[in-house]
Each structure stands twice: as structure tokens, then as C-alpha cells.
Amino acid sequence: MTDTDSTKLFEARHLRDVLGNFPTSVVAVTTSDPNDVPVGMVVGSFTSVSLDPPMVSFLVDRSSSTLPKILAAGRFCANALASDQEWLCRQMAKKGADRFTGVQWQQSAHANPILDGVVAWVDCTIDKTVELGDHYLVVGLIGDLNVASVKRPLLFFRGGYGDYTSTAQLLLDSHLRY
């Protein structure tokens, strides 16, 4: 079997439509430039990599104008957006806009923006970057992390945004009287 026999090519739209059935978290990756100006972008491919050493990763398109700034800083904070932060997701995804206008945040120990109102955050230094197809895989070594709120996470599924509620939480809530 040749390489062309084992690799089936798909139309980009079909590939996106099928893979859109895998829900992904919505994460704002942030850092600051040498002048302490906050920088950020949205990714839908954040994941845990290793517990020992503690590592996480995200994928970003090679054409990203934000990635070179994150790589130059050598650090990032992954902010898991909450279900009430779709507006922030859309703002952080705009090209050429000031993505931090009206956004409240605190500076991490590594000088990365931790966005107010997120579900959780993970503060990292960049361990390695690997080119994979039309994306880069950025691997971070965790320096600090925390759960910031009990809000539900913002998810991306079938081309739209939504949230997640566990069936266990629904059951617990149905038995509690407020």
C-alpha cells in the first residue's frame, strides 16, 4: 500500500462538519508583550498533556498573528471561558481589534493576563512548539493553575456556542431547595 492509498483526502467543509460533532472547550490564551500590553486569542484545542511533568497544549493556525507574540513572550495563560462569556470569545477572536477593550483581568505570577469571570486558568511557560500540518502545537509547562469559579464552561459544538450541565448536578439541584 502506498502513502496515497492510506491517506484519504476530504473536502474541507465535510471535514469541519464531521469534526464539529466533537464538542470543544473555548479557551482564551493570553500573554503580554515586552511593553506589558495584553495579548490574547481564542483556541478550541486546549488539552492536558502530562501530569509528570505537568504540561498542557493547544493548537493554533500557522497564519495566526498572535502566536508570534506568545512565542516571543515564552509564556501563556490558558483561560477556560465561562458560559456567560461568549461576548469575550467573540471579542478575542476579532482580527485587528483591541481584544482587551472592556475586559477585566489580573496579572499572573508569570505576568500573563488571567481573565476575570473564567471557570479556571493554567499559567505556563512554553516548553516546545511543533509544526503539524497547517497548525502549530504549543506545549506549556504548568507553573500555576486554579479553579476560578463554579460557572459552567463555554463549549463550541456544531458551529455554535453553548454550555454544559452535568446530569449529576441536575439531580443534586432538583433535590435542593433554595
TrEMBL record:
Task: Give the UniProt keywords, A-Z.
Answer: Oxidoreductase
Organism of origin is Gordonia prachuapensis
InterPro entries the record matches: Flavin_Rdtase-like_dom, NADH-dep_flavin_reductase, Split_barrel_FMN-bd
This protein's record includes keyword Oxidoreductase: yes
Q: Which residues form the Flavin reductase like domain?
A: 19-163
- What EC number(s) would the UniProt record show? 1.-.-.-
Molecular function per GO: oxidoreductase activity
Q: What is this protein called?
A: Flavin reductase family protein
Which top EC class is named for this enzyme in its record? Answer: oxidoreductase
Which Pfam families does the entry link to?
Flavin_Reduct
Family label: Belongs to the non-flavoprotein flavin reductase family.
Give the source's domain of life in one word: Bacteria
Lineage runs:
Bacteria, Bacillati, Actinomycetota, Actinomycetes, Mycobacteriales
